[in-house]
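hey so i finally got around to running the thing on that chain from the lab meeting. sorry it took forever, my laptop kept dying and i had to restart like 3 times. anyway pasting the input first so we r on the same page abt which one it is
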Amino acid sequence: MENQKIKNDCNNTIGTNIRKIRKEKGIGQTELVSKLQLEDVKMTRETLVKIERGVQHIQLEQLKGIKRILGVSYEELLD
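ok and heres what got predicted. didnt touch it at all, straight out
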């Protein structure tokens, strides 16, 4: 179940929200990816770029890790 992918809507809401919140908190892509990797979340910078652009679906494990690191709720990421 951890490999479950969450489909982005046609507006790329999840990716857009991740990018917006990450930038508001002053966290770069490389820093976010490094923190995810320290928590054993499989993510590369290339993957994060694709998720933020809406080219790649996010995995549940990745969404959970991003939520923890950015200190936000699922609603903030999904709305």
